[in-house]
Amino acid sequence: MGDAAALGWQRAHTALRPRRKAAYTTRRPGPESPMWNVCSGLLRRELKAFGAKTRLARYLGIPRQRLNNFLNEKSRLPDAELTLRMLHWIAETRAGRDPAI
Question: Is 8 within a domain?
Answer without folding.
Answer: no
